[in-house]
Specification:
Layout (H helix, E strand, L loop, with lengths): L3 H12 L3 E6 L2 E6 L1 H13 L7 E9 L12 E2 L2 E2 L26 E9 L4 E8 L7 E3 L8 H12 L2 E3 L28 E6 L4 E6 L32
Parallel strand pairs: 2-7, 8-9
Antiparallel strand pairs: 1-2, 3-6, 4-5, 6-7, 10-11
Length: about 240
Amino acid sequence: MIDLDAHADALRARFGNTIELTRAHGELELNVSPDDLLEVCTALRGEADFAYQQLIDLCGVDYSQYGQVEWDSSASSRGFSRAVEPVTMGRLSFGDAVDIEREGPRFASVMQLLSVAHNRRLRVKCFAPDDDLPMLPSVTGIWASANWYEREAFDLFGILYSDHPDLRRILTDYGFVGHPFRKDFPLVGHVEMRYDPEQQRVIYEPVSIEPRVLTPRSKREDHRYQVHPPHAATGGED
């Protein structure tokens, strides 16, 4: 059985105040500043006490509306109340001003590490200090598997990774504007694509639909859901 307490003590003894260590979802989460990220990650991979030689995932996170949702799980005879009041930024049109109240930086890069030698996992989180131009050191020199993951975080969240060997979009089109996983990116987008038979090519046009979030309904009393007893056998003489 993995002793997380002992491993946490080893991490604190090695890195001291360089890291902030928490425990969540049965795993340790290590928070580190961008200035110390490469040094800490190099030690996590190379030192035998840790041996996190595999980076199995890396993703970006936008904390701009962390804890704010417009989806309420409560339901009544009138249906679900969720998705009725426009609270989140996703309904905005592209370019609308957004006034967000939050504490701390907005963007973070989260890495999931695996140590096969010790059968342990570790989550490493690093926040970008500048919300307007989020930039973090690339860890591709430590784990080669971070290459495409960092490109994905750049494409979807707009996080820049310094010293990345080939930082360019990986999922969206070359001419795509914006970063679709940011919380202020409109749900309907801001352009739509179609094939024009006259021009014989794909063209981009402004979005022609209004932002709309469907409101799910609770199940009503309906004959389709009623269970009818089998018909009673009619008696009679032969």
